[in-house]
Amino acid sequence: MNIKNIEILKKGGVGVIPTDTIYGLACCAFSKEVVVRVFKLKERDENKPLIIIISDISDLEKFGIKTSLKQAEFIKKYWPGKVTVIFEVSKEFEYLDKGLGLAIRLPDNEKIREFLKQTGPLATSSANIQGLPPAKNITEAKKYFGPPTGRVNDGVGFYEDGGELESLPSTLVKINGDKIEILRQGIVRLE
Fold it and tell me: Strand ranges (DSSP E) for 97-157?
């Protein structure tokens, strides 16, 4: 992935990137201001959290997450993969979790994980305006968000082309004690 695009994300910009499921509108997970901008770009309901994608399980520490034994067993089985796990986090990250827990995924795509090693954890949401179908390609994404600005502080700074992507979203789970609750059945079928 393009070095200039990495810099746009690191400096607080927004980009559209291919993930291991669909195209995502992405920004630095540690910048509240740019996360707010993603919500505005998507016209997204303020109570719907974003999904954080990480490059390695060790990135959980950056959010102060200590996994329970059940969580550790689960993520060892399903990560890297197309399963998003919700973790409890401190109030410091409330702008990401909206009080519902922090949704995190370790993508099952080595190229994306390498990109994330350079950018750090990214807050993502499907590349579309809320209520409309997710973009399957860059042309569709540009219809939603306009041409790339090439800038950090407004609009979508860049589009990273990953070809045609059409998939169900990730499966979303929450683990409470020994109970695994499936909140959204996505591409990975869990019993």
Answer: 102-105, 122-126
Q: What is the pTM of this model?
A: 0.94
Six token digits for residue 124:
């993502």
- Among residues 123, 124, 145, the alpha carbon closest in space to that of 41 is found at 145
Asked if 138 and 159 count as a contact pair (C-beta separation under 8 A), the reply is yes
Q: Residue 106 to residues 50, 51, 81, 112, 122: CA-CA distances in angstroms?
A: 14, 10, 6, 10, 11
Whether the predicted pLDDT of 112 surpasses 70 = yes
The rounded Cα 88 to chain-centroid distance in angstroms is 17
* Residue closest to 14 by CA, chosen among 162, 161, 155, 160: 155
Render pLDDT for 124-140 as a digit per residue (tens, 0 to 9): 999 999 999 999 999 99
Return d(Cα 54, Cα 31) in angstroms, integer. Answer: 15
Q: How far is CA 107 from the centre of its chain?
A: 9
Q: Cβ(50)–Cβ(123) under 8 Å?
A: yes
- Point out which residues pair with 105 in neighbouring strands: 53
- How far is 72 from 63, CA to CA, in rounded Å? 16
3-state secondary structure of 116: helix
C-alpha count within 13 angstroms, C-beta hemisphere, residue 66: 0
Return the CATH class of domain 3-184.
Answer: alpha beta
